[in-house]
């Protein structure tokens, strides 16, 4: 049926390095894979004084249930 999806639209973009887009536009990009990387990455983003994006890779088996549309 129209409008129903099994996965959110972004589910097709696994492992997309969005921070590289921000860097290409002159901003500050960070990529994190482990929880201990997040705090320092956020601090570097703030310290950069530029528009910034911190891209955090999450486990595929965690998060919102499949088919849900939580933000």
UniProtKB/TrEMBL annotation:
Residues 12-56 form the Thiamine pyrophosphate enzyme TPP-binding domain. GO terms for molecular function: catalytic activity; thiamine pyrophosphate binding. SUPFAM superfamilies: Thiamin diphosphate-binding fold (THDP-binding). GO terms for biological process: small molecule metabolic process. InterPro entries: THDP-binding, TPP_enzyme_TPP-bd. This is Thiamine pyrophosphate enzyme TPP-binding domain-containing protein. It comes from Thauera terpenica 58Eu.
